[in-house]
Design goal:
Residues 181-211 form the 4Fe-4S ferredoxin-type domain. The chain is of the alpha+beta class. It is built from 15 helices and six strands. 34% of the residues lie in helices and 8% in strands.
């Protein structure tokens, strides 16, 4: 079998598995500029509390090491689109609209990893002695840099991979293999003079193009960080409950037509979000939490983090529209967060109540000193 036949079979199999774009890069050639940017990011402390990013620093430079796959020669990079039309999103439940688009449905790790395993199995079956390892977001791999090198797309000024004709709403995955494949042509940045993503960031998380200060990023503040966000950033977080898509929403490359709704079914909001209100998220019982977030990426934020985030959203909604249709539930959310055992949720809940004049701060005190507020209803238990 010729090398071109092998390349073609792998691409065809990847498309059969549901991936929308496929590319190949050499796995035994180290990253250079991209790795330098990563090191500078870490050395500047812009990764905040994500200590795992400080590990395997040199191993992230290449893929043919014991950390990934000894003897690796190629990496097959794939992407799965999750963009949906504005018309479809308009029908999403209120809570779901505060969740980043990739996380409104099923946890992508579960079904993307399954497809990557099947692709790796297919590659191993192409000949004796061929090894292949699927990678999906948890290994120390700079997947955006490899996707760019494979010609999958280019890395935009917001640090995300943009696939021309498909946009940046794309989940990435890789299969590293000892098989020698024909590498694609690396795709270089095509943003030109455009800075819409940088200018639109509500919290000013981009000090310069291609550099993200995670400590100011809404996705980091609502997912990765365990403490309460700095008070000066809470208003800018707006109504983002889990993650943020603002820098993608303004990108001209995302004006492309989305795939058919049937192609994005696994990213559609779960039915449970239709039955959930902010106040529910602020008072989930510990024993009910695993069932509430089962099969969704929201588990990453933890129970206290979701209560904290719900309180930020509720406070910002009340500040914007104190007499709105959800005002009562927003107030209930703040009260429940202020009574939460998680200190970050409690701090933000009391900050929200202070902001709308429901409690008063003693001279010289700070939010969190006023004492717990009793919840007005039993904690939320997920509906069946």
């Amino acid at each position: 079998m010729s090398s071109s036949d092998v390349d073609r079979q792998i691409r065809e199999r990847a498309f059969e598995l549901g991936f929308d774009v496929v590319g190949v890069a050499r796995a035994d050639e180290p990253l250079d500029v991209e790795h330098d940017r990563y090191r500078a990011f870490i050395e500047a402390g812009m990764h905040g509390t994500m200590r795992y990013l400080e590990e395997y620093v040199e191993e992230r430079r290449r893929l043919d090491t014991p950390a990934i796959l000894p003897g690796a020669r190629s990496v097959v990079c794939v992407g799965r689109r999750y963009a949906r039309s504005a018309e479809a999103e308009a029908h999403d439940p209120e809570v779901a609209r505060g969740i980043a688009r990739y996380a409104r449905g099923q946890d992508y790790h579960l079904f993307v990893r399954k497809k990557l395993r099947r692709l790796a199995e297919f590659i191993r079956g192409l000949g004796p002695g061929i090894d292949a390892r699927p990678l999906c977001d948890i290994e120390p791999v700079m997947e955006r840099a490899w996707a760019s090198r494979a010609g999958l797309g280019f890395v935009g000024k917001n640090g995300l991979v943009i696939v021309p004709g498909q946009g940046s709403y794309v989940m990435l995955g890789e299969v590293v293999t000892t098989l020698v494949l024909t590498p694609g042509v690396p795709m270089h940045e095509r943003c030109g003079a455009c800075t819409r993503c940088l200018d639109a960031c509500p919290t000013g998380a981009f000090p310069t193009p291609f550099v993200l200060d995670a400590r100011r990023c809404i996705s980091y503040l609502t997912i990765e960080q365990h403490d309460a966000p700095p008070e000066e950033l809470r208003e800018a977080i707006g109504e983002h409950l889990f993650g943020c898509d603002v820098c993608q929403e303004v990108c001209p490359y995302n004006r492309t037509a989305p795939p058919p709704e049937a192609r994005t079914q696994q990213f559609h909001p779960l039915s449970r979000w239709s039955e959930t209100r902010l106040s529910d998220l602020a008072s989930i019982e510990e024993e009910a939490f695993p069932e509430t977030i089962q099969g969704t990426p929201l588990r990453r934020a933890r129970r206290g983090g979701l209560a904290r985030n719900a309180a930020i959203v509720a406070a910002n909604k009340l500040a914007r529209d104190p007499e709105g249709p959800d005002a009562e539930d927003n107030l209930r959310t703040l009260e429940r967060a202020a009574a939460h055992e998680d200190p970050a949720a409690r701090e933000v809940g009391e900050w929200g109540l202070l902001r709308i004049g429901r409690i008063e701060r003693e001279p010289g005190s700070s939010a969190g000193d006023e004492g717990a507020v009793e919840p007005d209803a039993p904690p939320f238990a997920p509906r069946r």
